[in-house]
Amino acid sequence: MSIACPHCGETDQSGQFCDSCGKKLEKTCRACSASNRPNARFCANCGTPFETTDKTPAKPDGDGAQQKQVTILFADICGSTELVSRMDAEDANHALGSVVGVIVEALVRFGGVVNRQMGDGVMALFGAPVAIEDHAARACFAALAALEAVGQMGDRTLPIRIGISSGPVILRRTGRDEEDYDVAGITAHIAARLEQQAEPLTVLLSPETANLVTGIAEVESVGRIALKGIAEPLPVFRLLSATDRPSWMVRSGARVLSTFVGRDEELAQLAAALERASTGHAQAVALVADAGMGKSRLLHEFLDGLPQGAWHAIRVETTAQSTAIPYFLITALLREFVGCSQDDSTAEVAARLPTVLASLGLDAAFDTTPLLAHLDREVDDVAFGTIDHAQRNLRLVRSLRPILQRYADLHPLILVVEDYHWLDASSIEVLTELFTGLDGARIALLITTRPERRPGWPLHGQQTGNAGITGMLEIDLKHLAADHADRILKGLIGDSDELAPLRAHIISRADGTPLFLEEFGRSLHESGALANGPPPLESIVIPASVQSILAARIDRLSSHHRRILQIAAVIGRDVQLPLLAAVTDMRELNLAQEIGVLRAAGFLVEINQRNGLVHSFSHALTQSVAYDTLLRSVRRGLHGRVLRALEALNPDSRDSILDRLAHHAIQAEAWPEVARYALAAGERASRRSALTEARAYLESAIAALDRLPPGSATITQGIDARLSLRGVLILMNDTAALQEHLKEADKLADRAGDRLNLARIYISRGAILSHSGDLPGATELSRTALDIMTAGNDSLGIVSATFALAQALWYSGDFREAREVLMANVGHARGDAGQQRSTATFVLPSVVFFCFVARVLSDLGDNAAAFAAIKEAGAIADKQGHTFDQLLVNTYEGSLLLSSGQRERSVAVLEQVLGAAQTNKVEWHFPMIAALLGSAYVDDGRHADARALLERGAAFADRSRHIGKRLLCCPPLVRALAEGPEGDPKAAKSFASLTLREATTRGFRPVVVRTQLALAHVHALEGEPERAQEALRDAATLAEKLGLLREELEARERLSSLLRQHGQTKPAFSEMQAASGLRMRLAALSGER
């Protein structure tokens, strides 16, 4: 059968060597570097599949470039230019070539791909073209090996220096050979600059590399170094040494272990297996899970929890480098048997072996030849070197088994093999045979491995066909439940409620994988992201260590299956087969078979949903990493294909998939489709109170519309999008962005001569100006808007403009005019238009209209009419069932209860509103609730609670540039500051003075009245009756002018009492008469209804 050469690509090869390039025809496994026969479909050593299918999905657009997390190493010979100038050209070439050759050999030995070789130096990639999870560690091992190898050459005139950096790059193939790759990105630049900065015989590391090799390498800081082309000096580290250690030992040795949770069932299974082993029934147990699931941690906790002295444990710990070492297990076992460390030579192990064997009662007739041979010792049995592989393994097993049995006879024995998946094939063969015939021994074999490298022994309870153990118990570790994951994160980043959204976000991404949770937590701490509170959730990136683990899994797929997985990642977390088939240009039948491979590898799971069968990514992070390997240009093209496929597959039901259509249109930068779908999706998200999503969609729609050719339809859509965004931004408390969008909308409407849309914009701008303190501007814009809407007989616009104008008038104290405007247009609010949601208001227009009617009437003393209005608003809100409508109604109801003297009921209602607002994240409403509830707390004598709530409300309003809302909090805050055990009247007077000055200047006359009333309390506390009287007179005069009957009544009654206390009976009587008249007017208002 003819094949293609894997080195040069020449086809029709049938011999053992390529007749074009001369290289041996064999397949090298990407995962373990083992050699395989040319026609192999799977690696004989680790089981990784080779590419065998010609059913190739349509390739993504682009030149085959991809994004990778790699480590780059630059090495060169110091002073080579000077050396060459003093030598004959041929001699110089030979000298430099010899050193470079030694460097290359060291780099390749540890998995480096030497993609650039100069006369005096090299560049090598670790983790590319095939991702490997320990790329940084391998680069460090290779660098130290290169230094040692060059040092052993004995030529001190040719010292080398090395620079290493880790990070993202764009990888491109430049030729047919396996080393023909080039990279682009800052990572390569930093590595090259570090090499130039390194002293002879030293290795410099970037901070990213140093971080990735924590626990593996010993490094020392050399401070910050300014590198050409890098804006800020970079923290740089010198590599001193590195030790090849299992990943578990690295993590547990380098940092404090996280909380151990969620493994009670697995611990019980291990305990049961050990119980059986203790009775002389040897057991074999495999803990099976992907990287990061906590296999080694579970084993550690289990062994640590055993009674002291009950079991003797022998541990064999493997690493990725073990795969290339034949019979690694044998040497490691012998080291354990004789008590030698990894640093002891094999000669020392061999020297101790006879003593250990004698202590076990194994006499001189014991066959030590296989053991000594594997310790590289000379043996007397010359024939041993000539026997075949199977006979050699049999001799080894016959020598090792008695040692294990004698150990188990003396003491129950646990043999631990960590990371079994890294064992070489010969070790696995010996281990499998070794445990045949051990059924009568008190021994338990506990191994940890990954799903792709299960031992393949008969499972526990199956018939084995021999006298050995009764089968292997495989324990598949499940992902941690959300509550267990949260416990881990609480221990890592904190358990405060403030961090709860951040923990939930990480949990949703880490999918219950303990290591990923730890790495997210560690990354947040080391980056300082938590220093100023929780960071924005969108800023949380996948740690480089996690990316490397997942990328290594993905790269073990064939390129064919990897492309399918990447296209699926572009589609989303859940993938329907017809959609994937349309995007890949493959037949569904063929594609289903390929999806089966991805399911078997653990990348996808099959789920039955209402709309049919879907294939879902097993882990959100796997989807993210598969997606991130694609270049932005490639992603953009694929999103466009997904968009077109979705439209074709859903011609009559696009409304049901608006979010998906908008997402893919945005990512494809298909601007007409973005304008259409994102605007619709944003408005729908806004109706559902999904504010973050609504804002993102609407801002995307606006950006798309700005890119399209100007036209009347485009301008109208641009205005609509900005007005829709208005309500969202108010709820999100982003006044600055809101004002900017409304200015743009104003320009568009003016350019188009669109009077009605201009009026809608004026309504929104008027409302903002009211809150921000420009009451004349708010009144003018709102009145203009109402005139335009009235002229156009636009009922919905009339309702919204009326509210905007009434709000400005209410803030300024023009209550009578506000009532007149509201009553004149109440019919529009009761009509059909009042039941429509408007882009100009974020609550139902009729609800906010009647709430404001209630507020104005209450301020004018007509509580009976006010309660009727709030009842009408409540009925509409209950019918609609919208959260914001109901919150608004309940807030105004609490205000009416407070003004009518029902303080206890008012507090209960307002506290419930405050809780609901916090639960639903309705931040815009907080200052108003704080002003009302804080006032009630003051009257209740809860001064500390009032002070805290009112200060929070005022600060929040200030941050939002809502001066009007801040001023509402000030009058009750004056009293809260002055009264109570911790009261400070002087501070209260100073604060009142500032409030009066600002409220008077800006025209917030009701605030002036209420602040004067509060200030009178403070003056009375301070024993300043004349000043208290003056404040009360001013309050009464202004309240009378504004029609604030209750405030005027309070001012005159308190003034009468003060005058009487100080012997001024005549003016006291006069004030009391005026107060009596006010009481009669208030009673009459109540009695009219």
UniProtKB/TrEMBL annotation:
Keyword Signal tagged: no
Guanylate cyclase domain segment(s): 71-195
Biological process, per Gene Ontology: cyclic nucleotide biosynthetic process; intracellular signal transduction
Domain of life: Bacteria
Pfam assignment, any one: AAA_16
Keyword match rRNA processing: no
Species whose genome carries this gene: Reyranella soli
InterPro entries on file: A/G_cyclase, AAA_16, DZR, Nucleotide_cyclase, P-loop_NTPase, TPR-like_helical_dom_sf
Name assigned to this protein: ATPase
GO molecular function per UniProt: adenylate cyclase activity; ATP binding
PANTHER family per UniProt: GUANYLATE CYCLASE DOMAIN-CONTAINING PROTEIN, TESTICULAR SOLUBLE ADENYLYL CYCLASE
